[in-house]
User: What shape does this take?
Amino acid sequence: MANCSGCGPGYSSPLDAMKGPREEIVYLPCIYRNTDTLKPDYLATVDINPKSSTYCQVIHRLQMPNLHDELHHSGWNACSSCFGDPSKKRNRLILPSLISSRVYVIDVGTNAKEPRIHKMVEPVDLYWKCGLANPHTTHCLGSGQIMISCMGDPSGNGKGGFVLLDGETFEVVGNWEHPGEAAPFGYDFWYQPRHNVMISTEWGAPKALVDGFNPAHIKEGHYGNSLHVWDWTSHRKLQTLDLGEDGAIPLEIRFLHDPDATEGYVGCALRGTVFRFYKTPRGDWAAEKVISVPSKKVNGWILPEMPGLITDILISLDDRFLYFSNWLHGDIRQYDITDRRNPRLVGQVFLGGKIVSDGPIRVLEDPENQPQPSPRIIQVPQTPCLCRSLFTYLYPSPSFHLSLYLSVSHHPSPSLHLSLSLALSVSLSLALSVSTCIYLSPSLHLSLSTSLSLFMYLSPSVCTCLPPSTCLSLRGSVFLEVLRCYS
Assistant: This one.
């Protein structure tokens, strides 16, 4: 954030933010709901300072006190909207829970690297004070209040209303919209006070999407395809823009960062499209499709065609580039949007998705004629060396064995590893194992370990040692040995 006397949080403009110092930590909601792990969600703190010894590592985990929250989008209690108010501080992170309808207020001001829960807004407050549930997007307002969009009512029906929180006490104040004027569905929103406008989007009815996507629910009217234009000052809904089938499930919406601009983009998930919305010379608003990611004909999936399923989108602070992620195809795309009506694809990287080359799904036809991407594996930088090792197991009794591990390294400086282990075995044999080890520096390792394992006659082994730290050696898929490495 800006560091100046007499100014509030954030920056005076997006271009000033580009000139500011880079962030040193990021906060990442981590979700367990709908997995086999019965644990609360947590907020991970990640060190992104390249000069730090814990760079790119999770340095703290803040576990929520409840199960099945499904933390989703996060926001700040104060931001650049309050730049002119020096009494405001960006010291609370707002974490709405999409399924439980709980809102966590996280203290990141006392210790940014070890945040803690400051307050919980319970679902009953949203239900009774606002008639809303399933909170999603959080934005701080220039007034000091906090505004959160909601997707439904307490019964799980679609209802696109907005909750206001007091920026100091974080108590529920009430609804932003007027009674009876909520949109049929809700999801994201973005406001532009210079033009007295706010535009909101639609996902679907919570009771339809809570357990996963069912294509039949589209025809039954449980999902949206419209943008809603609101008067920012009077809180009145002015206009609804029907995007049609190509605009089904419009999710993330972004105005250009230039405060004078009267246009922006919205990503529509179901058909993999991006629409440009804009103010017309008549003073009303319109939208046009400007990007279309074609679906791929596939085999081995629930449907014969797989859309990209655009989820999040971002616009660079200088308004030159648009970024979005294709949830199913697994790629992140970069478009040059200097020609606002004709975005041009200039970058693409695959990070995962459903169509990796070693997966069960085969692409039969792709209008973009792209090969199925290889699986992506993240590795830390290391200096490799190849070690050959010989394991000899001696069995003094049917249930125990001793092992001698001797290796010579093809590193610029050889290293010697001696290991004496006591383990429970179910077989009596002489085993020979070939292992591959990776080290950051030549070192002498002496270890004593105890383990429980089932040995194979021939088993590969991979060991990553980061002296002086703990390393794990996995022999085949059945032997786990923990070594303390000393350099």
Q: What stands out?
A: The radius of gyration is 27 Å. The chain has four helices and 34 strands. The CA atoms of residues 278 and 341 lie 10 Å apart.
